[in-house]
Design brief:
alpha/beta, Rossmann fold, 5-stranded parallel beta sheet, 11 helices, elongated
Length: 274
């Protein structure tokens, strides 16, 4: 083993696969099964899950563990890595003098992560609609990383896909790929839709639009909070909103862990730690 002693902490299924991938790369990996104290004692690198919870309480196999408690067991010169580190945990790490890195800031990792997210979203649609994707009218809001992966999958299965986005250049790309397009705030007619996928983290689907959706048309929420759906209106109207956070860790944890390990290894090599 030539890499740093590494503690991989967290109950997310990706963490187990991540530990294996980092071990194969030459890191001396310790996991929670050895006990948190044993895993953290003398560790040069602590790898937290994706995302790091906003309250700084890390879900571990042994139960919730405050980040402060984990840091108490680390040497002061340890490096901490995690995905989507919110303000509160970041402030804590700074106050305690730990060097830390948010591996999810990588555009490459976000692009890779969009693939299992799109596959998971497609699986949700298949499981929660009464019809085949073939011939279904589908709305995808936004044209970001996830939408650009999801739409070709839907088109490949024979769906009629409509994309609503804010940027004309995004709509040009979506249209060229075979999708119908609408420039937000315009949306395509709702009455014949079989499924809606939202990828935009701002409210686009209000009560007037939700009221027109067929009763068996689910809305799959893929955006971060606050999402794109008027929740109060959806509840009142009986529209089924399916929240789908963390899909990579649920539908493809080994692949998702492999993507994360590649990012971690690249950073360690930049620091000449591996």
């Amino acid at each position: 083993m030539r890499g740093p002693i590494t503690a991989v902490i967290g109950s997310d299924p990706r963490q187990g696969y991540l530990a294996g991938a980092l071990r194969c790369a030459g890191l001396g990996v310790r996991q929670e099964e050895q006990g948190l104290e044993s895993a953290l004692d003398g560790a040069q690198l602590l790898v937290l899950p994706l995302p790091v919870p906003a309250d700084g309480v890390i879900p571990t196999l042994a139960g919730p563990a405050p980040l402060t408690w984990l840091l108490d067991m680390l040497p002061g010169d340890a490096l901490v890595m995690g995905g989507r580190i919110p303000d509160r945990p970041a402030r804590l790490l700074k106050e305690r003098g730990f060097e830390f890195l948010d591996y999810y800031r990588s555009e490459g990792l976000q692009l890779l992560n969009a693939l299992p997210t799109a596959e998971g979203a497609l699986a949700i649609a298949i499981q929660n609609t009464p019809d085949t994707i073939l011939g279904m009218n589908v709305l995808v809001t936004g044209w970001g990383r996830i939408a650009r992966r999801l739409c070709p999958m839907l088109l490949g299965l024979g769906a009629r896909v409509y994309v609503a986005a804010r940027r004309p250049e995004a709509l040009a790309e979506a249209g060229a790929s075979g999708c119908g397009v609408s420039l937000l705030p315009e949306l395509p007619p709702a009455a014949e839709l079989g499924c809606v996928f939202n990828t935009v983290p701002s409210e686009l689907l209000g009560g007037d639009y939700l009221r027109q959706l067929p009763g068996d048309c689910p809305v799959v929420e893929l955006a971060s909070a606050p999402g794109g759906v008027d929740r109060a209106a959806a509840e009142l109207l009986g529209v089924r909103v399916i929240d789908a956070p963390g899909l990579p860790g649920k539908v493809a944890p080994r692949s998702a862990a492999r993507y994360i390990s590649g990012e971690i290894i690249a950073h360690l090599r930049e620091r000449e730690m591996l």
